[in-house]
Amino acid sequence: MEENEISAYQKAGEIAVEVKRFVRSFVKPGVKLLEIAEQIEKKIRELGGEPAFPVNLSLNEIAAHYTPDPEDETIAEGILKIDIGISVEGFIADTAISIDLTPDGEFKDLIEANKGVLASATEIVRPGMKVMDVGKAVQKSLKKFNEDNETEFSVIRSLSGHSLAEDTIHAGLTISNYPNENDAELNDMAFAIEPFLTSGDGDIYEGKVGEIYGLVSDAQVRDGDAREILKFIKENYKTRPFCRRWLVDEGFSKVNFALSVLVKQGILHNYPVLVEKSKAPVSQAENTFLIYGDKVEVTTE
Prior knowledge:
Blueprint: H1 3-26, H2 33-46, E1 50-51, E2 56-59, E3 62-64, E4 79-88, E5 91-100, H3 108-124, E6 129-130, H4 132-149, E7 154-155, E8 161-164, E9 174-175, E10 185-186, E11 189-193, E12 196-198, E13 204-215, H5 224-236, E14 242-243, H6 244-249, H7 255-264, E15 268-276, E16 282-284, E17 287-292, E18 295-298
Helix pairs in contact: 1-2, 3-4, 5-7
């Protein structure tokens, strides 16, 4: 890993720490998700980064991939997962926290269990470790928490941590949160450990099509508005996810039509919202790690 890459990953992580501190200071019950998203993304830019993807604000049984639309009236309530990505020169910090917005601390145990399993996984990270060791650490920690607290929380098995690369959130390596046989070694790389927990069964399904898009291929586009927006996407977001409200904020016209054209042509992928199958609440915790030489850094903590 080159020095400029390491420096950019570290800077992105420093911004992430500041943004999480900012988030905890202003996210309260009843605040609109749209306001939260806009304030977080504004803060990232003020601190010298760019959003690596639209901030995910997933409530209750929604596990991931929810970001507000430009007219969204949804308010923060229940348990809110806030998944934040920061890009510095294309190198990414990916981090997430869960906040209990109930008056009686209904989700306190779920969030504490989630923090605990991430901490347990963090303790074992070292150069050359095997990916499967992460899943073992998560499961061991979760089992102990459940026994000590008489809870029955489970991991969402289909959501995992992942390697990171320049302008790429999911760079090919999956870091599962359950026992597995992946003996790939973690060396000279950036990656995220990202356990999701639930009081439900731990299965998810794809809900309605959401507001997050990503560039997956290229092709000739006949429609002028769609062609103009595609050019902007390739120049500004590259392979990083983006959302409709960003394009609206840039002043483009016919955004809905252009996006539908690009999705139909297979140029863009529209990410569906992911929902826990039994409609049970979901929590999330995530940090980004950097391994280079004999060093290990948690960049987002």
